[in-house]
TrEMBL record:
<feature type="domain" description="Lysidine-tRNA(Ile) synthetase C-terminal">
    <location>
        <begin position="115"/>
        <end position="187"/>
    </location>
</feature>
<dbReference type="Pfam" id="PF11734">
    <property type="entry name" value="TilS_C"/>
</dbReference>
<dbReference type="GO" id="GO:0008033">
    <property type="term" value="P:tRNA processing"/>
</dbReference>
<protein>
    <recommendedName>
        <fullName>Lysidine-tRNA(Ile) synthetase C-terminal domain-containing protein</fullName>
    </recommendedName>
</protein>
<dbReference type="GO" id="GO:0005737">
    <property type="term" value="C:cytoplasm"/>
</dbReference>
<dbReference type="InterPro" id="IPR012796">
    <property type="entry name" value="Lysidine-tRNA-synth_C"/>
</dbReference>
<dbReference type="GO" id="GO:0005524">
    <property type="term" value="F:ATP binding"/>
</dbReference>
<dbReference type="GO" id="GO:0016879">
    <property type="term" value="F:ligase activity, forming carbon-nitrogen bonds"/>
</dbReference>
Length: 206
């Protein structure tokens, strides 16, 4: 049944018929949530808990949320930096007309160094706004129901010594603020200035 579902899902995404070896490799990943593999013809397999998901391209299906294509990215400040996946990071002293979840005001006097974006690292912790004490980033992602397939490349705004913002989700309370001389950091799509919730074309199989 699973073999048939994989073949059908791959065909739906325009991939050639899967071989026995490709299906065996795909099924072997079932026990490893969060893993992915290049299956064929730019069709990727992503393991989501107990579900195998086939997507066309690894980053593009998630174009409606920012995903880093490098593990560490220096930012132009002030200015605009491309981060991949048709998203850009903007740092400015001018408040956006309609700030949404992808914009954050920071008190620059609290920052201990230059801002950059990076992916998560083992042992990451931060102090989420509205909470008490610090939290493991991994536990925070689980609580916020962020897809396993998105966590590895989810952008973190950081200084050399701290996570400042889990982008689009929650800032660290040590840096959050909106004084008169605040700076604004935002994630902006190439096609639009806001983000929706559509994660693109995907074909799940059970």
């Amino acid at each position: 049944m699973q073999r048939h579902a994989l073949r059908r899902a791959a065909a739906h995404l325009g991939a050639p018929e899967l071989s026995f070896e490709q299906i065996a490799a795909a099924r072997s990943l079932t026990a490893h949530p969060g893993r992915h593999m290049d299956l064929t013809a730019h069709v990727y397999l992503v393991v989501e808990q107990q579900t195998l998901v086939l997507v066309r391209g690894l980053v593009q299906p998630y174009a409606d949320v920012p995903q880093l294509t490098s593990t560490d990215l220096s930012l132009v400040n002030p200015g605009i930096t491309p981060i991949g996946n048709d998203w850009f990071c903007s740092i400015t002293t001018v408040a956006p007309a309609q700030p949404d979840r992808w914009w954050l005001a920071l008190d620059p006097r609290r920052l201990d160094g230059p801002l950059s974006l990076r992916c998560r690292q083992p042992g990451d912790r931060f102090y989420p706004l509205g909470g008490q004490g610090s939290r493991k980033l991994q536990d925070f992602f689980v609580d916020q129901k962020i897809s396993r397939a998105l966590r590895a490349a989810w952008p973190l705004l950081v200084t050399p010594n701290a996570i400042v913002w889990v982008v689009g989700i929650r800032p660290d309370r040590r840096f959050h603020g909106a004084p008169q001389d605040s700076i604004w950091v935002g994630m902006v799509q190439k096609r639009t200035s806001s983000c929706g919730g559509n994660l693109g074309e995907a074909s799940p199989t059970q």
